[in-house]
Amino acid sequence: MRIGIVGAGRIGGMAARLFAAAGHEVALAHRGDPETLRAQVAALGPKARAATVDEAIDFGEVILLAIPWRSRGDLPAERLRGKLAIDAMNHYRPDFTFYDLGDSTSSEEVAKALPGARVVKAFNHLPAEEFARRGRPDDMLERRTAAFVAGDDQDAKRTVAGLLAQLGFAPVDTGTLREGGKLQQAGGPLSNQVLTGAEAEGILHGVRAGEGEEAPRP
Q: Fewer Cβ neighbours under 10 Å: the N or C end of the chain?
């Protein structure tokens, strides 16, 4: 699959490594000159290339967004129309406090900025270092680390879940961008939780049944 990644920091760089290692073609971009990414891309092997933001979006069948959440309005919305866009962002201010979302969720706000994009929330609930080391493609699904997926487009969610499974995670559907996004976004009950797929499904069942608001801390 062709995957465009917008944002070459910790999350974007981690995702580029994992996708390229799994055999996907990757175009990595940030808002600067692609030449500044040459060394980073060279380390990923022949499946990866440096690109401008527009080039990465045009290249990708799936686009992973890993820029600061506050910069979502700078994304080329028209180019992303109809694209499957993975929102790996969280609503942090520069000082790492949270923006006030009111009754909304961080991914709903991303979807508002990108009308027509098929937004799926994923790759956001663990630090990049945890994602980078926890994929276990050869392990049984129920023993793998859970990776959460939220969205309003069922086909798009299935595609992202398939990618996560290929990378060695247990994909767990948390629901819509509103319901699931609130659970897995930064500050939500599933944020920063290292859980197996089976544990995550049990916690989700409890939260939805009103048995509790938070997952147990490791």
A: C
Alpha-carbon gap, residue 111 to 51, rounded angstroms:
24
Q: Determine the distance from the C-alpha atom of residue 74 to the mean position of all C-alpha atoms in its chain, rounded to a whole number.
A: 18
Q: What is the pLDDT of residues 57-103, one digit of tens each?
A: 999 999 999 999 999 999 999 999 999 999 999 999 999 999 999 99
The residues near 14 (Cβ < 8 Å, ≥ 6 apart) are 128, 129, 131, 132
Among residues 44, 47, 46, the alpha carbon closest in space to that of 8 is found at: 44
Query: In the chain, where are the structural domains located?
Result: 2-208
pTM for this predicted structure:
0.93
Neighbours of 33 (CB within 10 A): 10
CATH C-level class of 2-208: alpha beta
Rounded Cα gap, residues 38 and 8, in angstroms: 11
CB 164 within 8 A of CB 145: no
What is the C-alpha to C-alpha distance for residues 29 and 12, in angstroms, rounded to an integer?
A: 9
- Indicate the SS3 state at residue 24: coil
- The DSSP result for 125-178, as a single string, is SS-HHHHHHH--TTS-GGGSBEEEEEES-HHHHHHHHHHHHHTT-EEEEEESTT
User: How distant, in Å, are the alpha carbons of 93, 137, 138 from that of 176?
Assistant: 24, 27, 29
